[in-house]
Amino acid sequence: MSVEEFEQGKEWLNDTFHLIRRGEDDCLPSVKWVLELAKAAVRRYRVRGLVIDPYNELDHQRPPNQTETEYVSQILTMIKRFAQHHGCHVWFVAHPKQIEATSRI
């Protein structure tokens, strides 16, 4: 790859992808915070895809009287409405914990 091709590739990446992230010292972002910034990106840059990665590092403040299933359903409904309203696909990436081997070969 030539230097010119490399620079063109960097320019394409900057024009195509828009990162939403908090500073390292900031608290974990909430789903609402992500969607507010995503809404601005949809309007400003015509973004049509949102990848939330990793989902498990979002700030999940579930009310004590709400089950985890109800909470996840509420979040998914919020994301679905955002996607439908803004014509934007949304993907969640979750990184599960390492599963320990329970049997030995």
From TrEMBL:
What Pfam families does this protein map onto?
AAA_25 (PF13481)
Q: What is this protein called?
A: Twinkle homolog protein, chloroplastic/mitochondrial-like isoform X1
Protein's organism: Ananas comosus
Molecular function as annotated in GO:
5'-3' DNA helicase activity; single-stranded DNA binding
> Per its UniProt record, what InterPro entries does this chain match?
P-loop_NTPase (IPR027417), Twinkle-like (IPR027032)
